[in-house]
Amino acid sequence: MKSIKKYLGIFWILLACAVIWAVGRQALQEINSVHPAKYQETMLFWVIITLIFLPIMVGMILFGWYAFKGEYNIQK
What we know:
The protein is mostly helical. The chain has helices at 2-33, 39-69. The protein has one domain (2-69). It has 2 helices and no strands.
């Protein structure tokens, strides 16, 4: 069970990094391709989305790190 927790910790870290990359990439694509009349609206939307997702993903990275290090193992 301990090895499963370690592998899942690595999985959570990689998943969080992939989501951060995907959200950032999508935000840049949307902001760069928007019509100038809707630039502020699009910029505000992606700033809000980024500010919501970034702390969640940092928490996932920390969760994965602690799982990888074995902090969640129950000591008997």
